[in-house]
Amino acid sequence: MWKDILRDQLEVDEPVFWSCVQEGVQPPRGTPEIPARALPVALVSLLVSHVGLDEAEVAAMSKDEAIARLQRYWTEDTRTQTAKQVPGPPRRRDHNRALSHSGVPSGHPRMTETILVTGGTGVLGREAARRLLGPDREIRVLSRRDAPAGTPYAWRTGDLRTGEGIDAAVAGADVIVHCATTLGSKDVTATNTLIEAARRAGTPHLVYISIVGVDRIPFPYYRAKLAAEEAVIASGLPWTILRATQFHDLLRLLVDVQRRLPVLFRPAGFRFQPVDAGEVAQRLADLSLGEPAGRAPDFGGPEVRDFTDLARTRLRAANRRRPMIPVPVPGASGRGYRAGHHLTPNATGTITFEQYLAARGD
Ligand SMILES: NC(=O)c1ccc[n+]([C@@H]2O[C@H](COP(=O)([O-])OP(=O)(O)OC[C@H]3O[C@@H](n4cnc5c(N)ncnc54)[C@H](OP(=O)(O)O)[C@@H]3O)[C@@H](O)[C@H]2O)c1
Q1: Which of the 8 DSSP states describes residue 247?
Q2: Considering 44, 61, 84, which residue would you say is the last residue of a domain?
Q3: Could you tell me if 234 and 188 are in contact, meaning their C-beta atoms sit under 8 angstroms apart?
Q4: Which of 66, 95, 105, 207 minimizes the number of CB atoms within 10 Å of its CB?
Q5: In this protein, which residues make up the domain named NAD(P)-binding (predicted)?
Q6: Number of independent structural domains in the chain
Q7: What is the pLDDT of residues 165-212, one digit of tens each?
Q8: Cα of 125 from ligand 1 centre, angstroms
Q9: Whole-prediction pTM
Q10: Residue 247 CA: which ligand 1 atom is closest?
Q11: Residues with CB under 6 A from ligand 1
Q12: Which atom of ligand 1 is nearest to the CA of 190?
């Protein structure tokens, strides 16, 4: 189990992990690159979220004590570890499971599970919220706007940048699926605001959507996503983070925003692995109904394709023609994209860009 946690959450093998934490954070030559900040955060996170220690207790430990504590825990019986895996008081959905498996006579009222979806009006969030609707569940959607007429959701109006309405939105939530984004550096403040409100309200399972490569491409938005991930990991709440590749919608948008231009500018040497937002939403919904999973395996689209190829596909579907002009993207971010750090071998999605465009019919 610990090997799985290290492999899935830290993307590192056990011997590499121990040599890194004991001798500093730089991985030995020839091993996969590990983000410098990942190990200390991961140590604290593993001790809080898996071993079940208080944050204050972990903060008072030396690094050697922390490592020794984790090693001791690792060698314990797996059944004991599983029992201790989720910290804090039992959540309401645990209670639901207990009721449904404990021989309570049929007709006994089940408690309602409350799930808040931030960004539930966005491309991903609205797909996730729709998939979560079901009996014995209250699905809340957080938006800065007022509820549309006839919404099937328990609507909450609030703003993660100002904090307005957030306490009321998270009160009583068992799970928070955090899909809201400011599309910029304010994502860090927004996520911290959400975490603080969630901690005041209890210990909800916090599920966060991130992007493949945020730790390897220093694009400003990715830096903010990485900092938000770190805030989630250090929150002391049970957590799950899913990283996905770019949605088909984004690739279509990159072409469509240029439709009034006589040419189409394309980033030279960029490949993408676009994925269907609905498929990512389904995975996010499944994760939010399960136990906190830490870093879930990355979710990528079925094909890695050159941007030129994807742009041609979009132009063809829209009956347009444009000469394409390559634009070199300078700097470390450009190099990161050209190196494919935003791609994943986990080609989990099945819907191709062509199928997505055909389903939209535009
Ligand atoms: N797009 C991609 O290719 C891609 C790929 C991988 C991961 N992701 C991640 O997936 C998440 C969702 O992306 P998306 O493309 O679905 O986003 P989106 O369509 O731009 O939606 C953004 C959402 O955030 C909400 N929001 C913005 N500012 C807010 C604020 N101050 N307070 C409360 N809510 C606020 C908006 O709600 P209202 O306008 O209703 O208030 C909206 O629902 C993001 O975290 C993104 O990084 C995206």
Answers
A1: B
A2: 84
A3: no
A4: 105
A5: 119-249
A6: 2
A7: 999 999 999 999 999 999 999 999 999 999 999 999 999 999 999 999
A8: 7
A9: 0.76
A10: 3
A11: 118-119, 121-125, 142-145, 159-161, 179-182, 190, 209, 211, 225, 244, 246-247, 250
A12: 31
